[in-house]
Write a structure and sequence with these properties.
Distance between the termini: 62 Å
CATH superfamily of the largest domain: Clc chloride channel
Structural class: mainly alpha
Strand content: under 5%
Number of strands: 0
CATH topology of the largest domain: Clc chloride channel
CATH architecture of the largest domain: Orthogonal Bundle
CATH class of the largest domain: Mainly Alpha
Largest sheet: none
Radius of gyration: 21 Å
Oligomer: single chain
């Protein structure tokens, strides 16, 4: 190997390592600021719950912001997936401040939403700016999008391994090269340690008792997986239904979150459903030690689907955690297994079904709960993945892999039987 080739390899490695470190730092710092800000507005809302009545005003502001300044980025996570599949234009940086402001307003006034969408969109908006700086081609842009997703996810949840795998899995593994895997891991840890550097803490969950491996345990785990997949299916369809409903019935986009906010404010503040506002982390934590009412997971699906469908901003993943943990916790009343174990299985399995990412969700479960329940987490996530249907929370996500092949076979059989 000649000197010039060695030099080119060294420069390429240096370039991509530098890009990963920079993206990790800026994305991690953005997530750290976001998490601190989100905690502040959440605590303010809890201490001044009358502010929920102003949810329509918050919705109107979000609607106007996106209508006049954010039309090119209003698709959110779906835009990121579309740009990965067919790279056209660099993601505008304005996506980052717009989704940050929109999410904080949503949570301040009591909308039911998550945070992963915000962190991921900020991460990709930051990452894609390096396309111009380093004059990257479309293939390299795809790598940047993966790095943005990885850094955003890893930093907001404190799960670097799951963040790296999620970024690869959500854009489907069949188009991933080895370089992307290494860089995704590098940027995920860079973003994770940046949040640690800023001394921002993440929520901790634990499964203290893991049942022994047996046929009956496998049976119950499979039941959790199937029900989690169906809950994920309901969640995805609910979000898409309300989004379509508001788009068809209200022509002027800023009015959608305004009218949706009126209905949400009456339901949440007027009828005492404040536990379904915001992320719902206290409810998630409680579900690991106390059995949740059977209807909690259904109401969270309803409120989150309606909130996001109306045009409020945030993410879906933490509400999915809520839905899964509440479902598993409620099932402890009829399934003779530890509450925390069932809540933990539902926690990751519903997420797996809704995002078609069983590997990332299994790894996330082990990062959060330890290696002990790993085999059960993998089984529940895999079954939920197969039982959640072909449409997840991201409309633009292309479903490949085992599920895709299974549905193709089922479709062919249906056609043959006609």
């Amino acid at each position: 190997m000649n000197f010039k080739k060695l030099k080119d390899i060294f420069l390429a490695i240096f370039k991509w390592v530098s890009i990963c470190v920079l993206i990790g730092f800026f994305s991690g710092s953005a997530s750290a600021f976001f998490l601190v800000s989100l905690e502040f507005v959440t605590q303010f809302r809890i201490q001044h719950d009358w502010i929920i009545w102003f949810l329509p005003i918050g919705g109107l502001l979000i609607g106007f912001f996106y209508y006049y300044w954010g039309e090119s980025v209003v698709k959110g996570n779906n835009l990121l997936l579309e740009e990965y599949e067919n790279p056209k234009e660099v993601i505008p940086f304005k996506m980052a401040p717009l989704v940050l402001l929109g999410t904080l307003l949503t949570h301040l006034f009591g909308g039911s939403a998550g945070r992963e969408g915000t962190a991921v969109q900020m991460g990709v908006a930051i990452a894609d700016q390096f396309t111009k700086i380093f004059n990257l081609n479309n293939s390299e842009r795809k790598t940047l999008i993966i790095l943005g997703i990885s850094s955003g996810f890893a930093s907001v949840f404190g799960t670097p391994l799951a963040g790296a795998i999620f970024a690869l899995e959500v854009v489907y593994f069949s188009k991933i090269n080895f370089k992307s895997i290494v860089l995704s891991l590098l940027v995920a840890f860079a973003a994770y340690f940046t949040v640690e550097l800023w001394q921002v803490k993440h929520t901790h969950y634990s499964i203290s008792v893991v049942p022994e491996f047996s046929l009956i345990t496998l049976f119950y785990t499979s039941i959790i997986g199937i029900l989690s997949g169906l809950a994920a299916l309901l969640f995805s369809r609910s979000t898409h239904f309300w989004s379509s409903f508001f788009s068809k019935t209200i022509n002027f986009p800023p009015l959608r979150p305004f009218i949706g906010g009126i209905i949400l404010a009456i339901a949440i503040a007027g009828f005492g459903f404040t536990k379904f506002s915001g992320l719902g982390v206290p409810v998630i934590v409680d579900s690991f030690s106390n059995a949740s009412p059977w209807y909690d997971f259904l109401l969270k699906i309803l409120f989150t689907g309606f909130t996001l469908g109306a045009g409020f901003k945030g993410g879906e993943v933490t509400p999915l955690f809520f839905v899964g943990a509440a479902l598993g916790s409620a099932l402890s009343l009829i399934i003779p297994m530890p509450i925390a174990f069932l809540a933990g299985l539902g926690f990751v399995a519903v997420f797996s079904g809704a995002t078609h990412t069983p590997i990332a969700c299994t790894i996330m479960g082990m990062e959060l709960f330890g290696i002990g329940p790993g085999i059960f987490l993998a089984i529940a996530c895999t079954i939920a993945y197969f039982s959640s249907g072909s449409v997840g929370i991201y409309k633009s996500q292309i479903v490949k892999g085992a599920k895709y092949k299974l549905y193709q076979k089922l479709q062919r059989k249906e056609l043959e039987n006609l």
